[in-house]
Amino acid sequence: MQATALQGGLNDPPRQSAMAFRAIMDAMARPGRIEDLTGAEPPAPLSVAAGTVILTLCDPETPLFLAGAADCQDVRDWVTFHTGAPLVGAGECMFAVGTWGELPSLDAFPFGTSEYPDRSATLIVEMAGLAAAGARLTGPGIASEAGLNLPDIAPFQANARMFPLGLDFLFTHGSQVAALPRSTRVTVAEAV
Amino acid sequence: MYVAVKGGERAIDNAHAWLAEERRGDTGVAELTVPQIREQLGLAVNRVMAEGSLFDPDLAALAIKQARGDLIEAIFLIRAYRTTLPRFGSSLPIETAHMACDRRISATFKDLPGGQVLGPTFDYTHRLLDFKLAAEGQVPPAPVAEAPAGDVPHVTSFLNREGLIEEAVPEDRIPPDLTREPMELPADRALRLQSLTRGDEGFVLGMAYSTQRGYARNHAFVGELRIGAVAVEMEIPELGFAIEIGEVIVTECETVNQFKGSKTEPPQFTRGYGLVFGQTERKAISMALVDRALRWKELGEDDEGAPAQDEAFVLYHCDNIQATGFLEHIKLPHYVDFQSELELVRKLRREAGAAFAAMQEAAE
Amino acid sequence: MQEYNFAYLDEQTKRMIRRAILKGLAIPGYQVPFASREMPMPYGWGTGGVQVSAAVLTPDDTMKVIDQGADDTTNAVSIRKFFERTAGVATTTVTGEATVIQTRHRIPEEPLKEGQILVYQVPIPEPMRFLEPRETETRKMHALEEYGLMHVKLYEDISRHGHIATAYAYPVKVEGRYVMDPSPIPKFDNPKLEMAAIQLFGAGREQRIYALPPHTKAVSLDFEDHPFEASKADHPCGLCGAQDSYLDEVIVDDEGGRLFVCSDTDYCTHRQEAAR
């Protein structure tokens, strides 16, 4: 195991993870809202925000899927050392992390059952940037409407149509996070 | 003039101070020590460990002292403490065939390998108050016998050899953990047994008794009851093998129950199982009876609508910490809810009164 | 014995609760099962709310705890002290200053703002539990969106009493999908469920967490010919004169003389101070 695996964790987990969770929760409760999220210093290619989500929410009870470049030895060692989360394929995961291009199509992930819609994956999508513009978002958590530069439209619309089944998304870039739960309706923003 | 009640904080502090004083009682009488409780109120300690799901006689004794002898309160203290403990891993299944038995009896065979060992039981005491105990507690030493060498085989294994009793197939699967995952119904047997072993002794006893009186009767015999110490072993990944990390005392009861057979199974005996921390045989026998009653579906028996067959009913109501909390919460203020009901009842009465008056007027 | 962790719960327990909260927010009104822990206070006394609060609190928070709308009822005092001791957070009785408010049976009168979190203590999270005691059955009803039983019950009330006879814990339908129990708040509070703050509901004994994100639609169940009506005692507050607040009835003398006062003690105090 590389020394890098042992570093980049939280110095004060109870307080840091409390602050981090609040940012993640605020993002999930207000789809499209961009929040600051710091704490972890994960190995490349993970962003600070994605690493912090993993340290805040993952442990031996949460199977994790690493997609594409995130599925490298440094990240595997780091995740295993700091969280103990079992590394699994997309079909068995509770959390997944990767870029939109690297993540498999959404039907590869558990999307819940009609009796237990919560038994569904949360995808951490690494982005090249986050901006409050692009797709138009409406639904719970949004007073009138919000915007977010989603990497795609149709898959998120299909996901929302499955409600209450479906996947939930955390978009990460640098030390920022935004969320898109399955309850959010996505439409193409009208040209101004 | 009405002034809103203030001073909740002071009231709580004062209540706690008074409680501590009452706990101590008359200071002219020597204070009870934790070792005294552990050694001399051992069965109370055992019940607290069993229903508290934590094998630690000293902590259980402390909890009993703190709870002024209220065992459910003591169980609650232990549960609340237990939940804060870090979890290092899981032990291997304990092997009760290797138990150093203090007591081992079978009701189904007069004699058997390993013998009938009565052990320290109340069974054949005459329940006469012993006034000598009020004065002094000196006891003559009990006669000592050599412990039998080797394992004490389970009674059911003899029946098993003849194929007379259902096979209990060992499972490799790690069972779900009731204290780590929310209860999900239908529950498998491992989960039911976990729930029963920490369930309230009185509740489980009452359920078991109801099966004896005909509410899903299952004709149980105590195939075997054994009490004693067993080693707890744990695999240490760094070492690559299991080491003994301690021992616990448990009571194990296997009942042998009649079964007429079904379309797929020939007539044979079936089993009920009870395993409880400490010397707790009333609880272990009760648990075995209720376990057997809950297995009706798996064994292709009829649903008689008996309470002990109803998994949701038994599992959701056997936990005395949940039950006592919810029961006692009705002591908390509910005046907001009550106020909304008051308004509604007044309104309904007003309308009913007006309707009645209108009816009378019309009749006149 | 070692000291307890920040906000009492161990980190693994908090992660488990936090994951449940996120799923709850993603599926508004759906009851997420969670492995509730034994807390150092009895089940039924707010263990669900306490676990949720412990999972969301940060060291920067200011907490308020109310029971029946009041900050000074004994159980509210006890829970507030618990968090002062285990999380070291600042506490307040002023609704507007609080970032996390744990409540039993009331929504504060003062409208909550963005940035605030309201945590409810829930005794029985299943709105249909008293109509169908079996969890396996009610779970199926939610899955199939089969809420006929609930409507039948409410309609039976109307035919018998001329009104829906549910005065508190009045069920709502969330975003047109899940029927949800808002906890035993008086139905007077139901219209306030659509608010700017995050609402989290914790049922410890029953092992369920559910949530309403800000601005989530929560419609009280009713019928066209019997629309929902938020009711309260038809009096002004005897202390501050408020006409718009939920009132408690207090018996003030041996002859049964009555006084109506705000159940929200903070609201009432501020109005009295402002009048002075």
Model description:
The complex is a heterotrimer of chains A (192), B (364) and C (276). Chain A is α/β, with parallel strands linked by helices and 192 residues long. Chain A has a single domain, classed as Bacterial phosphonate metabolism protein PhnH (Rossmann fold, 3-Layer(aba) Sandwich), CATH 3.40.50. In chain A, 26% of the residues lie in helices and 19% in strands. Chain A has helices at 3-6, 13-29, 48-57, 73-83, 154-161; strands at residues 35-36, 64-66, 95-99, 122-126, 135-138, 146-148, 168-173, 176-180, 185-187. In chain A, the strands form 2 sheets. A 6-stranded mixed beta sheet of chain A has the order 1-8-7-4-3-2. Chain A has a 3-stranded antiparallel beta sheet with strand order 6-5-9. Chain A is globular and about 50 Å long. The N and C termini of chain A lie far apart (53 Å). The mean pLDDT of chain A is 95. Chain B is α+β, with helices and mostly antiparallel strands and 364 residues long. Chain B folds into 3 domains: 8-82; 96-122 and 144-170 and 180-324, no CATH class; 335-363. In chain B, 41% of the residues lie in helices and 13% in strands. Chain B contains 13 helices and 4 strands. A 4-stranded antiparallel beta sheet of chain B has the order 1-2-3-4. In chain B, strand 2 (220-236) and strand 3 form a beta hairpin. In chain B, helix 8 runs antiparallel to helix 10. The relative contact order of chain B is 0.12. Mean pLDDT of chain B is 90; it is low at 1-5. Chain C contains 6 helices and 12 strands. The model of chain C has no long low-confidence stretch (mean pLDDT 93). In chain C, helix 1 (11-26) packs across helix 2 (47-56). Chain C is an alpha/beta fold and 276 residues long. Chain C is 27% helix and 18% strand. Chains in contact: A-C, B-C.
